[in-house]
Design goal:
The chain is mostly beta strands. It is built from 2 helices and 9 strands. The termini are far apart.
């Protein structure tokens, strides 16, 4: 168990000894997004993981849902969040709570990167990509349906 406290020094939205990784490897329903695990498995005494995601201009995360909740803090740029039946403009320092089983997708659609810290439970379910039936059961907003990227 790692009992030593640590400071991860940031420089230009990267951290020493923290590698930039592919967002996901099992699907292709996203574009131009990377993941940095800031506090993860090397800190087994934490009940959560802290990750940073960065979406390049024009990119987006997967449309997904999962049983675990998570919190998100926007720390770079701006963009849009599709969350169930709403479209939210995201700006620097906005804080989000994404409830269990809420369909959501992040878009970097303002000609700048969208970067956010995401905190999730250490032990959690894997994200699920909703099928067409689930999407249409949960989302009635024409604007949200029009903006979904796949």
């Amino acid at each position: 168990m790692n009992k030593k406290s640590k400071v991860l020094k940031a420089h230009n939205y990267s951290w020493k000894d923290v590698s930039k990784k592919e967002y996901k490897t099992d699907t292709q329903n996203f574009k131009d997004i990377h993941r940095f695990t800031l506090l993860g498995d090397e800190y087994p005494d934490l009940n959560f993981q802290t990750r940073y995601f960065e979406i390049a201009p024009g990119g987006y995360s997967s449309l997904e849902m999962h049983r675990h909740p998570h919190s998100v803090v926007v720390i770079r740029g701006s963009g849009t969040l599709l969350l169930e039946n709403e479209v939210y403009a995201l700006n620097l320092n906005d804080i989000l709570y994404i409830a269990p089983d809420a369909i959501h997708q992040f878009h970097a659609d303002n000609n700048e990167p969208l970067g956010f810290i995401c905190i999730v439970d250490r032990y959690r379910d894997k994200p699920r990509i909703p099928d067409e039936e689930t999407i249409h059961q949960k989302i009635q907003s024409p604007e949200v349906l029009r903006r979904i990227k796949r």
